[in-house]
Design goal:
Blueprint (H helix, E strand, L loop, with lengths): L1 H6 L1 H10 L12 H5 L2 H11 L1 H14 L17 H6 L1 H9 L9 H11 L4
Helix pairs in contact: 2-5, 4-8, 5-7, 5-8
Protein name: E3 ubiquitin-protein ligase
Organism: Pararge aegeria
Family: Belongs to the E3 ubiquitin-protein ligase UBR1-like family.
Length: about 120
């Protein structure tokens, strides 16, 4: 289930961002249970590129809010609920990175660096 959730993470979160239901009623709320399990989180980062998938979802939502100079731009008189909902992705990053692995094998290192590359 965690692998399937991760493979579809982008579309799940994009649906949540455009929806009007509370986070607790969304399937996206399963991420806390999947991504806070240390062995599962490490496996998903190493074998299924979970950190990249999650970070890419956030970056793509941020890109929608960029001006011509590439900077985030918001309307001062309008609260963007869609962007506030997109910030739930940052919790998922926190969940994935919340537990230190006892050993860093090559796959885990590559998965971590690939996800981090989006922020550089």
């Amino acid at each position: 289930m965690a692998i399937l959730f991760t493979k579809n993470y982008g579309s799940i979160l994009k649906d949540f961002i455009r929806d009007d239901h509370d986070h607790s009623f969304s399937i996206s709320s399963l991420s806390v249970q999947l991504y806070t399990t240390p062995t599962l989180a490490h496996h998903l980062i190493a074998k299924h590129d979970a950190l990249f998938v999650v970070m890419n979802t956030f970056v793509s939502e941020c890109n929608r809010r960029c001006n011509s100079e590439g900077r985030l731009e918001f309307d001062r008189n309008h609260v963007s609920m869609a962007f506030k909902r997109a910030q739930f992705v940052l919790y998922d990053v926190k969940y994935l990175l919340g537990s230190l692995p006892t050993t860093f094998d090559d796959d885990l290192r590559k998965g971590f660096l690939h996800g981090l590359s989006l922020m550089l």
